[in-house]
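Q: What structure does this chain adopt?
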Amino acid sequence: MKPMTEEHLTVLRRHMVEVIAIQADLMSEEIGKSNLGERVLNAMLRVRRHLFVPLQFAAVAYHDTPLPIGFDKTVSQPFICALMTDLLDPQPHEIVLEVGTGLGYQAAVLAELARQVWSVEVVEEFASHAEARLKQLGYANVAVRVGDGTRGWVEHAPFDKILVTAAAEVPPMALLDQLAPGGRMVLPLGPEETQQLTVVDKSADGRIRTRTVIPVRFGTLETVV
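A:
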């Protein structure tokens, strides 16, 4: 069989976004809306997911499923990536912190939508790979560093938005402190069997309000002693 061309992959990426739209409609009661924002869907169309997964999975990169990326980690299924991004609602003037870079796919999606993305990854091999790939693809508004994501990136705080791609029992205090007044954080919360995708809003006077969206299953947010 011939190898896939960029044209084939573009068609598959378009189909992926159509499937995301169908999923959103089917889950409209759970997520509180029947469709995701056009800006988010267009970003998903632009970012070439097959370049952010191991080579052996490139041909299935546009299936709506998580894929292994090594070190017992996965890249989230496209629908979850799109939903988390939509809930976060990053704007063109905003600064976003991402906790859990992986191989850089979610960071690329965020970079399409926000002014600046700061991304922290605990696995050094992932961080170096993601940084090189993002740079190669021209994402000049993303910076990646190796570190404990629960501690955030205090040098660049406060952040308008924070996205966490691993689960915690409670929102890490350092991340709440680094979230700007009026800001929002999206993350999975709870133990492995009962995680809920959660939106955390910080009011202008610093009060925290949370709401759960749907059950999810993520790996645990790692800390560094």
